[in-house]
């Protein structure tokens, strides 16, 4: 009788971890939310559209570190030209001067 009780007790101890393992396997996994680094990378990639080579590397490095990169002189010129639109003469010169200096 004592042997039978001992065998049942030992069997119960050996089988109990298997029962717990099955419960864990049935639990649905929660989807992982993107971390802030992933969100920052996505944002910076969107802003870096059209940039290539060293220009892109510098931009991405500054963007991922949280710094706002400065526009190159060429980029400023493109930006200001686009904003100047149909302006002509002295009005355009004055606008371009103020735009490029800012």
Give a structural overview.
The protein is mostly helical. Among the domains are: 35-70, no CATH class; 71-102, no CATH class. The protein is 73% helix and 0% strand. It is built from five helices and no strands. Helix 2 (36-47) packs antiparallel against helix 3 (53-64).
Question: SSE layout and pairings?
Answer:
Blueprint: H1 2-26, H2 36-47, H3 53-64, H4 73-84, H5 89-101
Helix pairs in contact: 2-3, 4-5
Helix content bin: over 70%
The largest sheet, given as strand count, sense and whether it forms a barrel, is:
none
Uncertain regions: pLDDT < 50 for 5+ in a row? none
What is the H-and-E element order?
A: HHHHH
Distance between the termini: 94 Å
Overall mean pLDDT stands at 76
Return the structural class: mainly alpha
Count every beta strand, where a strand is a DSSP E run of 2 or more residues. Answer: 0
Number of helices: 5
Shape: rod-shaped
Beta percentage is: under 5%
Structural Rg: 33 Å
Q: What is this entry, summarized?
A:
The chain has 102 residues and is an all-alpha fold.
Provide tags for this entry.
single chain, 102 residues, mainly alpha, 5 helices, 73% helix, rod-shaped
């Amino acid at each position: 009788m004592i042997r039978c009780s001992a065998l049942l007790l030992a069997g119960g101890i050996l089988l109990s971890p298997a029962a717990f393992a099955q419960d864990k396997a049935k639990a649905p996994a929660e989807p992982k939310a993107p971390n802030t680094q992933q969100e920052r990378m996505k944002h910076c990639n969107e802003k870096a559209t059209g940039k290539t080579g060293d220009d892109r590397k510098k931009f991405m490095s500054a963007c991922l570190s949280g710094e706002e990169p400065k526009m190159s002189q060429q980029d400023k010129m493109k930006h200001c030209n686009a904003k100047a639109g149909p302006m002509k003469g002295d009005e355009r010169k004055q606008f371009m001067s103020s735009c490029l200096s800012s």
